[in-house]
Amino acid sequence: MGMPRPVRGTREGMSTTEVRRGEPVTTVLTWQVRPGRERQFEEWTRGITRCARQFPGNEGVSWLTPEDGHRYHAVLRWSDQHRLAAWLESEERAHWHRRIEDIATEVSSERQSTTGMETWFSLPGTTVQAPPRWKMVLTTFLGAYPFTLLIQWLVTPHTTGWPLPLRAAVFPLVLLPVLTYLVMPGLSRLLRLWLYQRDGH
């Protein structure tokens, strides 16, 4: 799996303060890799990613690395906290971890977990609290509205003869990946001073 370098980083498992069982959860774990061992670590990430994807409830694993190249961040998406815990405590995961004891170390202080829209608004390399929900809603609207117009203009007219369930699926299939991987991370960085200001405005 390729290592997307434009992103400055995330953590392979955001703080697990109050994540409800049965609710989708995103976990970010951070790894500090010894200089010169990056290639070995990247090979290891591909193996442990394949292993994680075989576990029930896994909804995807992404690996990111910041500019310095020595900290790697695994973003794990799981269907609920219970199944995530089953993976984190599994013998399979422990086996993979033993394989890199002399290559990399997990930065446990940066492990965090979150649910809902907070995943879109996490600040790379920090454990700062998510913004107020009204700010997240407004930012999400700013990101979604232009693409909603484009979909209605360019795509919807060509699907009028399709069955309703298929027409209804087009919108989320197009919009959600664009928001998750492109629009919302960019907006959260662009508006970070407003989103995370502490004065309550």
Automatic annotation (TrEMBL):
Keyword Disulfide bond annotated: no
Key words, A-Z: Membrane, Monooxygenase, Oxidoreductase, Transmembrane, Transmembrane helix
Transmembrane segments: 136-154, 166-184
Source species, domain of life: Bacteria
Region (Disordered): 1-22
Keyword set includes Nuclease: no
ABM domain span: 25-117
GO molecular function: monooxygenase activity
Coiled-coil portions: none
Pfam family, one: ABM
Protein name: Antibiotic biosynthesis monooxygenase
Taxonomic source organism: Streptomyces chartreusis NRRL 3882
Higher taxonomy: Bacteria, Bacillati, Actinomycetota, Actinomycetes, Kitasatosporales
